[in-house]
Design a protein that fits this description.
The complex is a heterodimer. Helix content of chain A is 12%, strand content 45%. Chain A has 4 helices and 31 strands. In chain B, helix 5 links the parallel strand 2 and strand 3. Chain B is an alpha+beta fold. The two termini of chain B are 27 Å apart. The chains are: A mainly beta, B alpha+beta. At the A-B interface, helix 1, helix 4, strand 10, strand 13 and strand 14 of A face helix 2, helix 5 and strand 3 of B.
Chain lengths: 432, 193
Amino acid sequence: MNVINRIVLLLSLVLAVNGVHSEELTIEITRGIADAASPIAVVPFSAQVPTSEDMAAIIAANLQRSGRFEPLSPGSYPFRPSELSQVNFDDWRVLQVDNLVVGQIRPGAAGNYTVQFQLANIFEGKPLLQRTYNVKPQQLRRLAHIISDLIYQALTDERGAFDTRIAYVTENAGAGAGEYALMVADSDGYNPQIVLRSTEPLMSPSWSPDGNRLAYVSFENRQMQIVVQDVFSGSRRVVAAYPGINGAPSWSPDGRRLTMVLSRDGNPEIYVASVAGGGVLRLTNNSAIDTEPVWTPDGSNIIFTSDRGGGPQLYQVSAAGGQPKRLTFEGDYNARPSVSPDGRYVAMVHRRAGVFYIAVLDRQNGQIRVLTEGGLDESPSFAPNGRMVIYATSQRGGRGVLAAVSVDGRVRQRLQLRSSDVREPAWSPFGG
Amino acid sequence: MNSVFKICFIMLLGLLLSSCASTAYDTPAETPDAGQTATQSQGLGQDQYPGTGYYPGSATGTEASSYPYQSGTVPGGQPLSGAVASSDRVIYFAFDSFEVSPEYWPTIEVQARYLIENPSAATVLEGHADERGTREYNIALGERRAEAVRQVMIAYGVSPQQVRTLSYGEERPAVDGSSESSYAQNRRVEIVY
């Protein structure tokens, strides 16, 4: 790397650090059904140390976003216990709350903090969960997500997906337009980090199953190409740069292969390539557009978009090749599949009467359920626990924003980044 | 001369009817295999970009990587001739269509003549779509449009090696907005040197 590149890199580091704090996402719950949600009290944690994070508020916001809990509003706590031994359950039964979370942050060894939390069922007066952690001061926000996952799992018997991340693409609006960035933020939109900046478009981020790498599309050097980048070390490698289209990368469940779209043989077709390099296997052979391939979680099939029947519809083909089978028949436009972690559902872009919605196809019975209000909704991505789908939609004025909807369609929220056009969210796997 | 162009138009119609979809690139020697691509892309495979330590406890806060580069230069240093620079180099398309309307054949012909007269010149046909529909599908649609223009150029006698396609799909709209008129301006192929 030469000196000029180093200077440019340093400058962009400075810009990135300055830019990040004004670019936090704000979350607005646009639709929720309170009577289906279980009331819970998350008492503000007592802190004997200076903290920049309100852990109870982070936990409460997480639980509320799931649509399954209704936290007590922060101002309405008549008592502020920091451990269950201080709790008189009769006092809390009056508040009609099902469950209670208390916690405390104390000084720990070597400048670390000791964080303890407890979860109890109020009506049974029974402790359900207790954990103590020794963490660095800057780890409190992540710990709040880990605790949220434990509470969610203890109360629902399902794995929480709060300690996960979302990758997405931004384009600066207004001044500096034409500046693209690949970003990774926490699942609640906080802590956005720049993975890559480019003056050329960036597209189609896809997480490796271990959550360590992102595959994406870039147009650097005026060549569409598929790049795999380690999100921790930043090292990146071009895995496809053939003539024409190099698009829509998606990882195999074992993390060894990518399915992708190439038009190197003259027409957009679905291919499978080893991440490590080597030859490519062509799966489709049709004069239509075949694109947006994704693996099913068992690794046996690839679901993709094709307009071989006229308009775009979803098809499925064996990952070893063979005759594709059509999956969708309702509506004149079904595209951009995202398969649920259990393999049963396929979230997709679904058009009716010129309006684009996010819908879910049930692979067991072929039925389609529309989840969103519609507009220019696109790029659905399942949470790793299969409960929520994150997607991109447009605001008035044309700016892209992210939104999330529960798979039953009952809870919806909008994640808003202040000064950018946000698009193409990809929810990380567990541990990513 | 006149009859030559008539033959060209007949060839062209034939190509359009036989669907531009199934035409392959005539540049097998330039097709890299997967093993070569990592090293072929101007050293990108080797460049290390600083990581983003977004896990709690990581030593650094926020870092970014960047790869600025210049665009807009003419490949091979070939300056634009007066005729090429001044003529319209944008071809527009109907909704969900990749058919080159005959009204744009003269536009393409001017560019084709330039390329035939300057065998060392090369052009990139940048295909674009409006914002409706999914992003990767629109990449394919933009590619179709660019490939359709490429086939017209080849029909005019341009060497296939002088023309490559690059689809930006809906990623680089000519104009913002969600009106029919902005959509019409965004469904296009730009002939770029």
